[in-house]
Amino acid sequence: MDKLNKLDHIINTETKNVSSCARAMANWGAGGRKQLLLTARERILKEAQMYLPNIE
To answer: How far apart are CA 24 and CA 16, in angstroms?
Structure first.
């Protein structure tokens, strides 16, 4: 019985970890965190263009 409880605990823990990773990856997709970061990068580069004209 103890082994079954340990296995059940391990499976539940792994399931939660997979779900957490899947949620994070979903946020990185279109319109998610990744898009926000890329947009911020573009905005910073545009602002830097005024001071450093040859930056890309």
So the answer is: 12
Show me where the domains of the chain are located: 2-51
Q: How far is CA 13 from CA 3, 21, 50, in A?
A: 15, 12, 51
Count CA atoms closer than 13 A to 12's CA, side-chain side.
6
Per the CB < 8 A criterion, the answer to whether 32 and 26 are in contact is yes
Alpha-carbon Rg for the chain in angstroms: 22
**pLDDT tens per residue, the chain (56 residues)?**
788 889 999 999 999 999 998 888 877 776 677 788 888 999 988 888 887 777 66
Q: Is the pTM above the cut of 0.70?
A: no
CA atoms within a 13 Å half-sphere pointing along the CA-CB vector of 10? 6
